[in-house]
Amino acid sequence: MHLNSSKTAAKIKIMNLYNFVKKYNISKTLFVVYFTFFTLIIYFISCIIFGQKGLITYFALREEINNRDIIKQELINEVNAKKNKVDGMNVESLDLDLLDEEARKNLGHSNKNEVVIYKNEEEQK
């Protein structure tokens, strides 16, 4: 039953199109030109919006670039922090506080009257 109703609807649309052509006295050649032009416009608009290089893809790629720029900036900040840490351990400009902190963390050095609390870096991420 659904197939018959869709066939009937298609026939009605074709009849409406036929009546439109007859009403405005449009020749077959002109109708084919208009129909082809209209079909091409619809095709190109759909390609502009939904195509492989369309607007939807463009905005998705732009969002991906923005996300990667944020990640890049975070990595640059992390590298700069590590560079500062390495520069602080340099012999010419030795940062004693940094040296003390690293010795306590990596070698386990502490005074007898100190309590050492280690923070778990994996839980923070």
Walk me through this protein's architecture.
76% of the residues lie in helices and 0% in strands. The protein starts with a helix and ends with a helix. The mean pLDDT is 84.
Short synopsis of the structure:
By secondary structure, the chain is an all-alpha fold.
- Average pLDDT taken over every residue: 84
Number of helices: 5
Strand percentage: under 5%
Which shape, going by the Cα principal axes? rod-shaped
Helix content: over 70%
Order of helices and strands: HHHHH
Question: What can be said about the biggest beta sheet?
Answer: none
Radius of gyration from the alpha-carbon trace, in angstroms: 36 Å
Give me the secondary-structure category.
mainly alpha
Head-to-tail CA distance between termini: 60 Å
Count of distinct strands = 0
Oligomer: single chain
Low-confidence stretches: none
List its salient traits:
125 residues; mainly alpha; 5 helices; 76% helix; 0% strand
Topology record:
Layout: H1 2-23, H2 28-50, H3 55-88, H4 96-107, H5 121-124
